[in-house]
Amino acid sequence: MAAPLELSCWGGGWGLPSVHSESLVVMAYAKFSGAPLKVNVIDNTWRGPRGDVPILTTEDGIVSQPAKILNFLRKQKYNADCELSAKQGADTLAYIALLEEKLLPAVLHTFWVENDNYFTVTKPWFASRIPFPLSLILPGRMSRGALNRILLTRGEPPLYHIQEVEAQIYRDAKECLNLLSNRLGTSQFFFGDTPSTLDAYVFGFLAPLYKVRFPKVHLQEHLKQLSNLCRLCDDILGSYFRHGPMGISPAGPEMIDVNLRKLTQLVNKESNLIEKVAFLHHCFPMDDNLRQSPQLLPRKLPTLKLTPAEEENNSLQRLSP
Amino acid sequence: MSLVAEAFVSQIAATEPWPENATLYQQLRGEQILLSDNAASLAVQAFLQMCNLPVKVVCRANAEYMSPSGKVPFIHVGNQVVSELGPIVQFVKAKGHSLSDGLDEVQKAEMKAYMELVNNMLLTAELYLQWCDEATAGEITHARYGSPYPWPLNHILAYQKQWEVKRKMKAIGWGNKTLDQVLEDVDQCCQALSQRLGTQPYFFNKQPTELDALVFGHLYTILTTQLTSDELSEKVKNYSNLLAFCRRIEQHYFEDRGKGRLS
């Protein structure tokens, strides 16, 4: 723990710290458990690994897959699951298996196999971050790897055609999203008020699907209808990734939501109810803003670990009329 | 199955009751069937027993090729053929029998998640052990898989299947795992199942569901199959409530109904 742990991963965009699911899972877990990670974003130079990303470089060597990285962090005492019971730990494993079996093929298909999406969004994005001439080879290889994985786990031998499995994998993915939404219900995170490994995995798989702008979007539409899952992603992004590495920041109404949330959280810390109501009416005399995000106000948010107190006061002064 | 075929099957299925002559096909029990196929077949048999639906088990050497999806076991009911536990559960539900109707939404989500856990970890570990571990593959799997066929077909088919399985392992990231890591994953999976089962008789308290059938199929097969080493069954034997669970289902659904001991 004396030497810094470095994580090499793909960079961010569309408001996410990273566009790659597995990198996001590791980043989210590190934030939840408080592990000090130095994030090295893969860029256009020849430096750094590019193959099996995300990769954690420690003083003893390198650790490569997300499951192994999370195990390593746990052994270093950065554990986000310390408040879970044994049964909840078992549930975590089961839900992660569900995500990998049912949701991952569809996410891979949306990003890498669907022609419109791949050629207009994914390939240019990755190619711009890989130096020439690797940028001609690597995205194609990743795409073929994704197609392979989908066909080998879902296709029926000996024909292995993608059309036969497309409908099936999207149906499974929608069912999986519905199941996750049912399990989350109205609670803040999956197991109470603090995020855990399962929240990291769900966030890692869902956030790119939710935020990245694709031409072919029917799975994204389905996800947007499940408002509690979208709220989970926005919460985690707002609370844990505001100061971290971020791509293009979202402008407009999302910014107002974030500030509303900050204010509401500050207000919730006050114990006097009358003061709360008067305070909110003072800051937002127009009722439109409140109506825009009805689900935010009545909830109690957990205390933010990262934001220092002075910054909140500054933002307050900016917003009060 | 494609969506159209599934819709067709469920429409037709809903109109007819379960016939007396339903048959389940699997590979030859004594010489040919492998660990993973036996587990799947036993899971389906347990599920049908739990639903009180009679089925006759028929062993054929080419069961894998007869199956519509290439996987055993498959059932032949009336004039339809359905393979694998997932589609069979849906088919049986279309006929009006279901074990998971009493569960609420959250419990159904949990049940599906745990079934995926078993498929993801236990089944993949069994496949790994059979085909990617050189000792087991050479001594047991090749000999068993090719046993009904004459030379050189037995070697060719065995190598072809092994290549296919190794390709799949590589695609999902298990290609570089060592046997110890695989056994550790099995241990983790059994621990999760054991914690979920706790002291209850079945996973969702009083009534068994398809999850119980699936877990029973896999665990019973692991416990009773002779492999080159006993490490896999040792991992399962560490959890006494899982052993009691297997014993309970075996007694209740197989021995009491006069089927005799499962081989």
Explain the overall architecture.
The complex is a heterodimer of chains A (321) and B (263). Chain A is mostly helical and 321 residues long. Chain A has helices at residues 21-33, 66-75, 86-113, 115-128, 134-154, 162-184, 197-211, 218-225, 227-240, 253-269, 273-283, 288-292, 309-319; strands at residues 5-9, 37-41, 55-58, 61-63. In chain A, 59% of the residues lie in helices and 5% in strands. The longest helix of chain A is centred in the first third of the chain and has 28 residues, at 86-113. With 263 residues, chain B is α+β, with helices and mostly antiparallel strands. Chain B has helices spanning 3-15, 35-50, 63-66, 85-94, 105-132, 134-145, 153-171, 179-197, 210-224, 231-237, 240-255; strands at residues 23-26, 56-59, 74-77, 80-83. Chain B is globular and about 45 Å long. Chain A binds chain B through residues 65, 86-87, 89-91, 93-95, 97-98, 100-102, 145, 148-149, 152-153, 156-157, 164, 167-168, 171, 179-180, 182-183, 185, and chain B through 2-3, 69-70, 105-106, 108-110, 112-114, 116-117, 119-121, 164, 167-168, 171-173, 188-189, 191-193, 195-196, 198. Chain B: InterPro entries: Glutathione-S-Trfase_C_sf (IPR036282), Glutathione_S-Trfase (IPR040079), Metaxin_GST (IPR033468), Mito_Protein_Transport_Metaxin (IPR050931), Sam37/metaxin_N (IPR019564). Chain B: Residues 187-249 form the Metaxin glutathione S-transferase domain. Chain B: Belongs to the metaxin family. Chain B: This is Metaxin-2 isoform X2.
